[in-house]
Amino acid sequence: MWCDTNESVIQWASEEFSIPYIKPTDGKVHRYYPDFLCKVKQQDGTIKNWIVEVKPKKQCSPPVQGKRVTKSYVYECTQYAVNEAKWKAAEEFALDNNAIFKIITEEELGLNGKRRNSKTRRLPKKR
Questions:
Q1: Torsion from C-alpha of 61, 63, 64, 69, nearest 10 degrees
Q2: pLDDT at 126
Q3: DSSP for 19-76?
Q4: Is the pTM of this model over 0.85?
Q5: pLDDT one-digit tens code per residue, 49-84
Q6: Could you give the angle at the alpha carbon of 94 between the alpha carbons of 43 and 42, nearest 5°?
Q7: Which parts of the chain register pLDDT below 70?
Q8: Which CA distances in Å does 75 have to 22, 59, 72, 90, 112?
Q9: What is the DSSP secondary structure assignment for residue 15, as one 8-state letter?
Q10: In this predicted structure, what is the pLDDT of residue 116?
C-alpha cells in the first residue's frame, strides 16, 4: 500500500528477483529474494532502483543473551547470521547495479510495533 500511495514510487514489484548469498550455517550458495524492488524518483529528479527488505526491528540487531543459552536464543543467533549474509550480498548487488539497498522496520513504516487499521483482533484462548 505504501508503494501505491507514494508519488515518488514510479514502479514496484514484490520478490521479483533473487540474489545469491552464502549461508553461514552450511557454507552453500542459496537464493535471497528481497521483499521489494522499487523504481523511485529521487528529490533531484533522477530515477533510482531501491532494493527493500522489510524486517521487524528486533531482527535487525544481534540477539541479547539472557541468563541461560536457550533454544530460542540459539535460533535467533542463527537467523541473525543468515540475515546478515543476505544483507551483505544485497548491498554488494546494489553497488554493482547502481541501486540502493534499504532495510525498513516498523518504525519507518510508522507502525511502532503495532498493527495499524487492523480490523482483526486476537480471540481469547478457550479454557
A1: -170
A2: 53
A3: EEEE-TTT--EEEE--SEEEEEE-TTS-EEEEEEEE--GGGGSPPPP-SS--HHHHHH
A4: no
A5: 999 999 999 899 999 888 898 999 999 999 999 999
A6: 5
A7: 1, 113-127
A8: 18, 12, 5, 22, 24
A9: S
A10: 47
What is the model's pLDDT at position 107? 86
Report which secondary-structure segment, H or E, holds 84. helix 71-96
C-alpha cell at 107: 518504525
pLDDT score of 125: 52
Cβ atoms 36, 12 nearer than 8 A: yes
Sequence letter at residue 127: R
Residue that the C-alpha cell 531482527 belongs to? 59
Q: How far apart are CA 64 and CA 76, in angstroms?
A: 9
In total, the chain counts a number of residues equal to 127
Domain boundaries, the chain: 2-104
CA angle, 12 then 99 then 6, to 5°: 35
Q: Return the C-alpha cell found at 98.
A: 547502481
Q: CA gyration radius for the chain?
A: 18
Is residue 37 a contact partner of residue 50, using CB atoms and an 8 Å limit? yes
